[in-house]
Amino acid sequence: MSKKTRVLLVEDDPNLGLLLSEYINAKGYECTLRVNGQEGYDTFVKNEYDFLIFDVMMPIKDGFTLAKEVRGIDKTIPILFLTAKSLKEDTLKGFNVGADDYMTKPFSMEELLVRMNAILRRVPQESNEEEGHYKIGIFDFDHRQQILSFNDESNKLTTKENELLKLLCKNKNGVLERNDALKAVWGDDNYFNGRSMDVYIAKLRKHLKADSSLEIINVHGKGFKLLEN
């Protein structure tokens, strides 16, 4: 039997959040609940999820901002918005920042489940690697164990190498935005952290040099791209 689909629900209404998370869990998913956008972002970058549900109006960081930041480091994970607003402009804004679907409160939980299943059927699932394992070229990358291996050789990565490589893998052959990677791994996109990240990118290039089909390139003015030729 396949593993449970992992859902991150970010909803600031404690009653609705609890009700939804319990319902989603009861339907065979594995749901994590967070109550504001910043908590949601911090949880997302530290864990593996298959589906995201964001309320739009939240304290500290709203759902649109949260989705934009998530899209900077993961282009494919499904995002569904919940909102009390029904204005067309808000719907359009939701899709512009990368939403897969949009539900206006109040809604039935049965309809939410139908929408989730429909999205999961049509969204490519290759980004949802089995328990944090990624296959890149000749390498097996175990994010949870922080190990990069090929043949009989294993390399224990530092925490920052590990997190940076995970983001590159999630965006393989696509651009990983520099500022988004900095905020996800270092917590701040200041100049000194930027210099530090350049050092870690160089270290990752050394780790991957045994496979000539793999390359981490700089995308001028944007960020980095892990290419698998």
What does this molecule look like?
This protein is an alpha/beta fold. It has 2 domains: 6-122, 3-Layer(aba) Sandwich (Rossmann fold), CATH 3.40.50.2300; 132-228, Winged helix-like DNA-binding domain superfamily/Winged helix DNA-binding domain (Arc Repressor Mutant, subunit A). It is 41% helix and 24% strand. It is built from 8 helices and 12 strands. The protein has helices at 14-26, 37-46, 63-73, 88-96, 109-122, 159-170, 178-185, 191-208, and strands at residues 6-10, 30-34, 51-55, 79-83, 101-104, 133-136, 139-142, 147-150, 153-156, 175-177, 214-219, 223-228. It has a 5-stranded parallel beta sheet with strand order 2-1-3-4-5, with helices on both faces. Strand 1, helix 1 and strand 2 (30-34) form a beta-alpha-beta unit. The radius of gyration is 18 Å and the shape is globular. The two termini are 33 Å apart. The mean pLDDT is 89.
Instruction: Determine Rg (CA atoms, Å).
Output: 18 Å
| CATH architecture verdict of the largest domain | 3-Layer(aba) Sandwich
Assembly level: single chain
* Number of helical regions: 8
Alpha-beta content class: alpha/beta
Low-confidence stretches: none
Q: What is the makeup of the main sheet?
A: 5 strands, parallel
- Intertermini distance: 33 Å
Count of spatially separate domains:
2
Biggest sheet strand order reads 2-1-3-4-5
The overall pLDDT average reads 89
Q: What is the CATH superfamily classification of the largest domain?
A: Response regulator
Q: What is the molecular shape? A: globular
Q: Could you give the order of the helices and strands?
A: EHEHEHEHEHEEEEHEHHEE
Tally of DSSP β-strands: 12
CATH topology heading of the largest domain: Rossmann fold
